[in-house]
Design a protein that fits this description.
By secondary structure, this protein is an alpha/beta fold. It has 2 domains: 186 residues, 3-Layer(aba) Sandwich (Rossmann fold); 174 residues, Rossmann fold (3-Layer(aba) Sandwich). The protein has 14 helices and 13 strands. Strands 3-2-1-4-5-6-7 form a 7-stranded parallel beta sheet, with helices on both faces. β8, α7 and β9 form a beta-alpha-beta unit. α7 runs parallel beside α8 and α10 packs across α13. The longest helix has 18 residues.
Length: 372
Amino acid sequence: MRIAVNTRFLLKNRLEGIGLYTHEVVRRLVEQHPEHSFFFYFDRPFDQSFVFGKNVTPIVLFPPARHPFLFVWWFEWSVRRALKRHKVDVFLSPDNFLTLGTKVKTVLVTHDLAHVHYPEQVSFFQRLYYRFFAKKFNRRADRIVAVSEFTKADIVQQYQLAPAKISVSGNGCRDMFRPLQLAEKQAVREHFSEGKPYFYYIGAVHPRKNIHRLIAAFDQFKMTSGTPHKLLIAGRFAWQAGEVKTAFEAARHQSDIRFLGYVTDEDAVRLMGAATALVYVSLFEGFGVPVLEAMHAEVPVVTSNVSSLPEVAGDAALLVDPTSVEEIAGAMHRICEDDHLCNKLVANGRSQRTKFNWQQAADVVYEGLLNC
């Protein structure tokens, strides 16, 4: 079988979200199925490390597709022509978008429908693009893979699709996430938080991620707890981060809040493993990989009681209303005051984390490729 894959999010040292999903799933497909030929469609020069086997032919298609106008050009012209030229049997597109103008069988991975629920948090041209194309993409796909049962139900409700058309693959956690020894934890704290314990967030700094309320909650926690804890926020600043800056400027404990920017994989592992807790109180998630990474690092989790997050967290996290600063601050207090609770969350996480892994995700995608 000749399989084309949209690999435009495979970016060296910038594997986030969709890029990580693409990397972990597609690498397994290539390595475990040498009987198939894979055509990787990049939209810019690629790193050779992303060519996972001899059965991969990497191809750069113009133009670099990072703007809605260029999305249309890349998918509807460049990819469409390449699919025909390479006589592809099936096209895998793991980034919510696909090519409408092709008869090639297509498997679409839909990560979330955040643009439906929070359209104001998407730039103007992207909002127009989603409004016109998103429903068409999901209806055109021969098979859809959703990353959670929540996302599957959302697709069915929003686009009136048959549930039988949609499989659920989940996400997984890279093997690098692990518990740290006490000496390792202290070394991380000396490097990143002046030797003090800290709460941790990792992900894009974007309105949907609710960082402004996290900052306000941490400030409230500091005013009433008297603990030496810091708040470390790892991740790039995305579009519309004004509320975050306003919340930071209003915080009385600015000196205890540190923005780390994008961190390397090595530092991400260390920072997670040394945290008092991961506080991931996003307003909306299709999955929420950091929650799973924290379970593998055996770190307590505070997360939201909305969207897919309760599904991923199970009984291994404190669930809070992400719109309530008081609830988020209260959860921080509970983490600091109740060692028994923390130990229980970690123990529950050891069981919960077994429900999600990259091999299972790859198997679901492969089944979709075979049966679409």
